[in-house]
Amino acid sequence: MQAAHGDAPEDLSHAGSVVDKAIEYMLEQQIAPISAASALLGGALGLLSRSMDDRSIAGVLRQALASVEAGELRQLPTLPKG
């Protein structure tokens, strides 16, 4: 089911759990965090490019940048050290 603009999709929590498991697996495989993050970001951008226009992708990226600049990412829980 598609969420209304600005609302989180119903399956976002599930998708987040799958990504968390993928990150844990990559760290267990001794993949450097920057490599894992770069691969995930590249994959995410590729997926967005297949489902959104460039202007919408830029909006998502601006929103992500604003979160970084506001320090919101520093408040997120961290994964266990590999």
- Based on CA inertia axes, which overall geometry fits? globular
Please provide the ordered H/E string of secondary-structure elements. Answer: HHH
Structural class by helix and strand composition: mainly alpha
* Helicity range: 55-70%
- Given as residue ranges, the uncertain stretches (5+ residues, pLDDT < 50) are none
What is the mean predicted local confidence, pLDDT? 88
Task: Describe the overall structure.
This protein is mainly α and 82 residues long. Helix content is 63%, strand content 0%. The protein contains three helices and no strands. The model has no long low-confidence stretch (mean pLDDT 88).
Quickly list its features:
mainly alpha; 3 helices
Summarize, please.
With 82 residues, the protein is an all-alpha fold. The chain has helices at 12-28, 33-51, 54-69.
Topology:
Blueprint: H1 12-28, H2 33-51, H3 54-69
